[in-house]
Amino acid sequence: MSAWQIVTKSLPDLLAAMLKYTLPITVISFVLGLVLAVLVALVRISPSRKPGMRALKGVTWFYVWIFRGTPLLVQLFLVFFGLPYLKVNGHVLIELNAWTAGIMTFALNTGAYASETIRAAILSVPTTQWEAAKALGMRKSLILRLVVLPQAARIALPPLSNSFISLIKDTSLASGITIIEMFQVSQQFAALYYNPLVSYSLVAFLYLMLTTLLTGAQWWLEKRTSRYLEPENA
Q1: pLDDT (tens digit per residue) in 208-229
Q2: Do the beta carbons of residue 155 and residue 121 sit within 8 Å?
């Protein structure tokens, strides 16, 4: 079978896997991870010294340390294959299907990395912004929501966009826990047609096109969110 025939036969199934698994897993995991990241970042920058907050800071530090310090593939295997071995009186405590395990792991991993991005972005907002808002009589929660977080979002946009693009590619690891996403489909066609070069080149091209489109969207968003900034040489 020629390379072109392999491409024409494989492409519909690869695109279907992209729409059914790769993109939904990426979007859902990133949204959940982003929510978690904001919460973790806010806890870690909180000035409160109450015992409960100090304990919560310890928990969030441990969470970030674990998920930034271990490989994503190992995390996927631990959640999907390892958790069912937690038993009490012979009963399994946690058993997740592949879809749930994949999304949960990707979200937790994204949240750990993104929390550091968001924390740094919030801390980079000048303290004069806080002081000016306080002088106007605004509450701390209102200052954070209306003054600080919008500025931090613009600062965090480039690294968060990079995290999203990386997550698109990282979903290929979900094939290791039986999710039939794009890479898993390409493996099946490689075994079927005995031509891994064509099959893997095709899936690589699809990932490349996805990341190229997302990079263009990132550039547009950065330009859009920075349209009110004064030029540096002004």
Answers
A1: 999 999 999 999 988 888 776 6
A2: yes
